[in-house]
Amino acid sequence: MLRISGVHTFYGNIEALRGIDIEVNEGEIVTLIGANGAGKSTLLMTVCGNPRATHGTVTFEGRDITRAPTHDIIRLGIAQSPEGRRIFPHMTVMENLQMGAVTADPAHFDEDLERAFSLFPILADRRSQRGGTLSGGEQQMLAIARALMSRPRLLLLDEPSLGLAPMVVKKIFEIINEINEQRGITVFLVEQNAYHALRLAHRAYVMVTGKITLTGSGADLLADPEVRAAYLEGGHG
Amino acid sequence: MTPRPALDVPAILKEAGLTALVMLGLTVGLVGFRIPDGIGASALETRFGAVAMACGLAFAGRIALILLREKRPRRVLFASTAYAVVVALAQAAPVLFSPAATERWITLRPFDSAVVNGMTVVLAAAFALRAAWMEWRHRRFPGIKERDKAMDAMGARVQRATHFFGPALLLVAVILPFLPMVDRRLLDIAVLVVTYIMLGWGLNIVVGLAGLLDLGYVAFYAVGAYSFALLAINFDLGFWICLPLAGMLAATAGILLGFPVLRLRGDYLAIVTLGFGEIIRIILLNWYQFTGGPDGISGIPKPTFFGLEFKRSASDGGETFHQFFDLTYSPVDKIVFIYYVILGLALITNSFSLRIRKLPVGRAWEALREDEIACRSLGINATNTKLTAFAIGAMFGGIAGSFFATRQGFISPESFTFIESAVILAIVVLGGFGSQIGVVIAAILLIGLPEIFRELQDFRMLTFGGAMVLIMVWRPAGLLAHRTPSIRLSDRGGEP
Description:
The structure holds two protein chains of two kinds. By secondary structure, chain A is α/β, with parallel strands linked by helices. Chain A has helices at about 40-45, 70-75, 95-100, 110-120, 120-125, 135-150, 165-185, 195-200, 220-225, 225-230, and strands at about 1-10, 15-25, 30-35, 55-60, 65, 80, 155-160, 185-190, 205-210, 210-215. Chain A has a domain at about 85-150. In chain A, β7 (about 155-160), α7 (about 165-185) and β8 (about 185-190) form a beta-alpha-beta unit. Helix content of chain A is about 40%, strand content about 25%. Chain A starts with a strand and ends in a 5-residue tail after the last helix. Chain B folds into two domains: about 10-35 and about 45-145; about 150-485, ABC transporter involved in vitamin B12 uptake, BtuC (Orthogonal Bundle). Chain B has helices at about 10-30, 50-70, 75-95, 100-105, 115-140, 145-175, 185-210, 220-235, 240-260, 265-285, 290, 320-325, 330-355, 360-370, 370-375, 380-410, 420-430, 435-450, 460-475, and strands at about 35, 45, 295-300, 410. In chain B, the strands form two sheets. Chain B has a two-stranded antiparallel ribbon. In chain B, strands 3-4 form a two-stranded antiparallel ribbon. Classes of the chains: A alpha/beta, B mainly alpha. At the A-B interface, α2, β6, α3 and α4 of A face α14 and α15 of B.
């Protein structure tokens, strides 16, 4: 579905991505883990065309989107829940969700809204509240719900567990699983919380300073001693 | 409040005494002895009274400083205010009082020199202000945060009140020309205020909704005014035909400006728009063949009421308003008509911006202001969205500009200086970004009041500046910076 091949991305002279090959197949949850500054978020943003890849290609459903403008890429059926949630703090929950639906057919707005609220019942209670007054977990839910409003086939999630309490993290990952299983939405998940992310993933990649160093099924990587040493030891369990 | 520790009186006295001693050392030689001016005077004059006074004041002043330091402002407030008032009165006594009373007041002057007395008054006043500030802050407003909260709540209340207040204001605006106390001068001021309200609402689309800081809004105002003037004079077109044309031309100018500056944000955008405003003005000034340069354009036609003119006698074969309706001619009719024209245009601007907020593009503007990256990640074309904001804001600016041209009958580049942009922006900022009623209030405050109080001359600009500073201190986000959601809960998001 999404194929990233040989992608190099630069920030000025700094090479953030050094030849990345990743494939995400339809119906999968694919996880990318890595430390801070490894280039995970850069990769997700490169998929969306901001910044663009200097070398290599990104194709979505067979279509080359490497040079396409961001708004066109999103309209193809990719949705991104960006790093740090980035909800609109002064707009209400409802307005945030409407913003998510700008690229969608207005005819099924009500239906999509109903589905968003059934996925995140708390948002239904909070619908007239301003985004900025929500708790961190609720904001993350709102960010995901907002991304889903455009009826994407591929959902890009950038660190949905960032800054959330363990209980909330667990809940968020359950919902991601639900989105994938029940709605059939392909998920490409970038995470630092390796334990949860790997348990959830069908396949996973490990990124270190702009390169993919390991790949395999989620369970394999979870058992891999290198991964355990680098990303799992000293916590979680 | 926590109980305060008792003051250490001996220590204070010691510190103040030390200051007085320093003062004594400084003044005894310099002030205490004086060689009188003039030839033949030989005896040394002594002025130990002044020295004693200086030491006494230094002693008192030091105590005041200590008390302020210890956060006990009340006594300092009373004492220094009393001192400042008494000495100021004593100094000003010859002007204020009868000669007999002056005799008595003059004895209260601490020093002979008016300058020195004045300086002590200023110092005392500074102490008083400092103490008053401290006192006031501690008593009424425990902290800036709480104050902001209280102000926000007030803003929200006012915002809610606009449901009733808005229509009432509208009613007043509509019947204004027929109110008994409204004369020609007041009506002229009203026209001016409503023009600025319209400009404020137009700029509010760009700055308030889309969050693009535009310091060159007057450029569109100028484009609209010149478009109308040139179209009307060269092609003999009427006001109502030119109005949309001028709006469109201004919108085009907005798009032309928009293209190169879309990548810029915040301060950089502001600088470029500022430059654009100046470019337009300088082009108007220098393109003599086309715009008449500094001479401007005169003889711009007045608007007509469905072809009826507002003149004493109709020009070549036409009919005038008063003839058609069989009224006696009154020059005020024209102003009343002009007032209704601008009121109508302003209301169109208002209802347009209220409506568009609820449409996807309006909501996208607001979202763009909040978070551009999030907007892009949702598939919004940031470039086009900004362009529409610029174009639509410019269009309303242009329409207001053509109104300005037709009302004045004469335009020149001098009417479109940067200060106009600044005033319009100030209206939007003071009103509270994105608040429609806030713009009205701010326009009345900033345009109406200075006009009404024109007699006060320079002081009105001083108050203008003072009011701006106070608002920025108390309401940094503007008077009514409370955003109302574009949808209410009961709507259930049922709109398309």
